[in-house]
Amino acid sequence: MRVVAVGRRPFVTAFRLVGADGMEVDDPEDMLRVVDGLYAADGVGLVLLDSELYSKIRVKLADYRKKKAVPLIYAIAAPGAQEENSDYSKVLRAMLGV
After folding, report:
1. Tens of pLDDT along 31-43?
2. Which of 48, 64, 68, 73 could hold 5 in an S-S bridge, CB 3.0 to 4.6 Å?
3. Superfamily of structural domain 2-96
4. Element spanning 72, H or E
C-alpha cells in the first residue's frame, strides 16, 4: 500500500524525501478533489494531509471517512508550521455523525 502526501510544496517535498508519493495543491478545494481521487484509486493505504488546508475541509472529509475505512486520512502540520491544538472529541463526533 502506498503513502501519499497532499498539500503545499514544502509539506509534500518533506514526505517525498522519505519515500512517500506526493501531490501538490494550493487550496482546500483542490485538496478535496485529490482526496476524492485517492479514495477511488487502488493501493493507497495512507493519505497525509497538510493540516492548514485540511482544517478548512475537515467536515467534508468526515463524510469520506464514514463511507470507507481505507485509505486512512491523517492531517499533520507542515515543517516549520505552528501546530494547532485539536479537540479530538469534536473530530470524533464529526466522523461519527453525532
Report:
1. 999 998 888 888 8
2. 48
3. ATPase, V1 complex, subunit F (3.40.50.10580)
4. strand 72-76
